[in-house]
Amino acid sequence: MSSVDTPAGAEPDSGAVLLRLHEAARVHGSGTAVPVHALNGVSLEVRVGELVAVMGPSGSGKSTLLHLAGGLDTPTSGDVVVDGVSIAGLSVKARAALRRRSVGYVFQDLNLVPALTAVENVMLPRELDGVSTRVARQEARAALTEVGVEELADRFPEEMSGGQQQRVAIARALVGPRRLVLADEPTGALDSLTGEAIMRVLRARVDAGAAGLLVTHDSQHAAWADRVVLLRDGKMAEEAPFTAGFPR
Amino acid sequence: MSVRQSLLAILAEGEQYGYQLRHEFELRTGRTWPINIGQVYTTLNRLVRDGLVEEAGRKDDGSVNYRLTYAGREEVDQWWRSAVDRATPNRDEVAIKVALAATAPGVDAISVVQRQKAETLRVLQGYTKEKRAMPHPAQGDDLARLLVLDSLIFSAEAEARWLDLVEQRLRAR
C-alpha cells in the first residue's frame, strides 16, 4: 500500500487504510514556555470507502488534526501515516511531495484559483504531477463529470455559484491518483439544499473509492459520515459508530 | 388534532372508505406516524357528529364510504389558509428531563445531557442514512417521506446543538 497509482475509474481496493494516526500528539511551545497540547494522543484510521467526521468545540484540536492528516505539520510524538508513508521522519520537501501526490483539500471557501477556469483548476495538480497537458485535461474533465459540473469546465470561479465551486474543489481534490480528501467545513457558506448536495457529492466520491476526513460543527452534515470523532481539549472524547437502526 | 385535519384534507380530494383513509394518511406522510383503524373510525364518527363529514354509501359488508359536507370543505380551506398554532409548545420529554436533571439533587446532569446527545446523534445518522438510500430527486410518496425526514433531521440537529449549549451552561455554573 505504499503507492496508489490507480488510474481513475479503476477498481478501488476497498478497506485499505489511507490515513492512520497513532497516538499522535502536537505540543506547541517548549522549554520555559508552558507547553500547549493542541492534540493529545489521538489514534484514528480512515479507510478507502470511509468518510469520518471530526466535531468538537473551538480550540479542541480539529484544525491541528487536519494539519497533521494533510502533512502540513508533523506530530511531536506518535505517528501519522498518509497513504502508507509515515510523515514523522520526512523532510519538509518530502512532505510537500506526499501532500501533492496523495491528499486533496476542500475548504469552506476560496478553494479555486480565480484566474483559472474550472477545468484548469482541476488540471493544476496533475500538471504539477508531471502529466501532459492533454492527459491532465482529459482527467480533469472526467473528474468534473463525476461531480456533475462538466458543463462548467470553461467558467471562471467568479462565474460559478458557491455550490458549483465546491463541486469543482472536490473534483480537484480527488483528480488523478489522489484518494484522501480533507474537507474543512466544506458546506459552511452554503444554504441547506446546496450543502446537502455537496455532502451527496462528497459521499459519492468516497463511496467510489476515496477516503474522507470531514471537519464540521454541523451535526447534520457529520451524519453523512460513517463515524463521528468528537474532540475535546485535544483528545478524542468518543467515536460514534454509524448505526443502521433507527426508529420509524 | 392533526389526524382530524389530515383526514378532512384527504377527504377533500374525494370519497373514501375508512381503511382507505388510514392507508392514504400513512402513505402521504411518509409512513412516519402510524394510526390504528380504531382511531380513524373514532375520528370519522366525531366528524360526522360535528357535521363535517357524511355517509356517501355502504358496501354489502357494511363498510361506509365517507365524503365531506359543505362545512367540512370550509374547515379544510380554513386549515390550508391558516398557520399551525405554535404558541403552545408541545411537551418535549428531553427538555423536561434535562431541566429537571439540572436541579435534581444527586443527579449528574452533564452525564444526562451527554447520553442524550449520543442518542440524538445516533438517530440523526439513521435518518441521514435513510435519506442517502432514497431515489434522488424524490417524487410522490418518496417526496413525502423525504420532507418528513428533513423535518426529523433538522429537529435532531437543533436538539444536539441545544444539548451542547446546555452542557456549556452547566459547566459554567
Automatic annotation (TrEMBL), chain A:
Residues 19-247 form the ABC transporter domain. It comes from Kineosporia babensis. Gene3D superfamilies: P-loop containing nucleotide triphosphate hydrolases (3.40.50.300). This is ABC transporter ATP-binding protein. Keywords: ATP-binding, Nucleotide-binding, Transport. PANTHER family: ABC TRANSPORTER RELATED, IMPORT ATP-BINDING PROTEIN. The lineage of its organism: Bacteria, Bacillati, Actinomycetota, Actinomycetes, Kineosporiales. GO terms for molecular function: ATP binding; ATP hydrolysis activity; transmembrane transporter activity. Pfam families: ABC_tran. One of its GO terms (cellular component) is plasma membrane.
TrEMBL record, chain B:
PANTHER family: NEGATIVE TRANSCRIPTION REGULATOR PADR, TRANSCRIPTIONAL REGULATOR YQJI. InterPro entries: Tscrpt_reg_PadR_C (IPR018309), Tscrpt_reg_PadR_N (IPR005149), WH-like_DNA-bd_sf (IPR036388), WH_DNA-bd_sf (IPR036390). This is PadR family transcriptional regulator. Residues 7-77 form the Transcription regulator PadR N-terminal domain. Residues 91-170 form the Transcription regulator PadR C-terminal domain. It comes from the Bacteria. Transmembrane segments: none annotated. Coiled coil: none annotated. Gene3D superfamilies: Winged helix-like DNA-binding domain superfamily/Winged helix DNA-binding domain (1.10.10.10). It holds the Pfam family Vir_act_alpha_C.
